[in-house]
Write a structure and sequence with these properties.
single chain; 159 residues; alpha/beta; Ribosomal Protein L15, Chain: K, domain 2; three-stranded parallel beta sheet; flat
Length: 159
């Protein structure tokens, strides 16, 4: 028999170190921080990297080259299981309806339907993109998966 087979709690929980509670507690006086330097001071954190009053390094370096990150299409995604749980059989679904239902943040982003989950309902879905499995599951259930270009689902052009 091994120690991990005795009980699920063996080795999982350990009492925390009670710092600064006197010399007999084992972590008294400096409480494990050492004697001098920023690490021994209150308010010091290793998580926050600051540069003092100087210009940060990312602003000092020149910006060169090209990145596609500004031109990627970001989708509002929804899974089939969420549609199956929220909508009735034969429902018409698009980005506006999903935004009102609270399944996507807003209707300005193009909609993409993903294939996680199962459905037997016949949905009529209008979206900018479908995953391969999502399109198959919707048509297999007897619904329709209509494609709308991503630019059409975004904000309309002002005249």
């Amino acid at each position: 028999m091994m120690i991990h087979e005795l009980t699920p709690k063996v080795g999982r929980y350990r009492n925390r170190k009670r710092l600064g509670r006197g010399i007999s507690a084992g972590q008294g006086k400096t409480a494990g921080r050492g004697t001098k330097g920023a690490g021994s001071r209150s308010g010091h954190s290793t998580k926050v990297a600051r540069e003092g009053g100087q210009t940060p390094i990312f602003r000092r370096f020149p910006k060169r080259g090209f990145s596609n990150v500004n031109f990627t299409t970001r989708y509002a995604v929804v899974n089939i299981k969420a549609l199956d749980a929220r909508f009735e059989d034969g429902a018409f679904i698009d980005a506006d309806i999903l935004a009102k239902a609270g399944l996507i943040p807003d209707a300005s982003m193009p909609l993409k339907v993903l294939g996680t989950g199962e459905t037997k309902k016949k949905f009529q879905i209008t979206a900018a993109a479908y995953s391969k499995t999502a399109g198959e599951k919707i048509t297999k259930a007897g619904g329709s998966a209509k494609l709308v270009p991503a630019s059409v689902t975004e904000e309309p052009a002002k005249a």
